[in-house]
Amino acid sequence: MRGYAQDKEEYLKRLRRVEGQVRGLARMVENDEYCIDVLTQVSAVTKGLQAVSLGLLDEHLKHCVAEAVSEGGEDAEAKIQEASDAIARLVRS
């Protein structure tokens, strides 16, 4: 079972909201809306995705990484590195 399983519906709800915002962005561009208004919506979409990312990362650390560390061995090192790499990707984005 994945660490986020208990909050899966909440993540799906957030992602559907982001999906709707992205469709709205496309309509705004198609309709030649004012640049600042489009950028404001891009910012909202970005924040929505960041919230999902941070939530998933938190769940991953609490469940997957913590479980691997408690078991020890190579899997623990791999999970820690995997989490570190994910954090680096999020920071760069």
TrEMBL record:
Top-level taxon in the UniProt lineage: Bacteria
Cellular location(s): Cytoplasm
GO cellular component: cytoplasm; protein-DNA complex
The UniProt record lists the keyword Repressor: yes
The keyword NADP is annotated on this UniProt entry: no
Keywords linked to the UniProt accession: Copper, Cytoplasm, DNA-binding, Metal-binding, Repressor, Transcription, Transcription regulation
GO molecular function, one term: DNA-binding transcription repressor activity
Family: Belongs to the CsoR family.
Protein name (record): DNA-binding transcriptional regulator, FrmR family
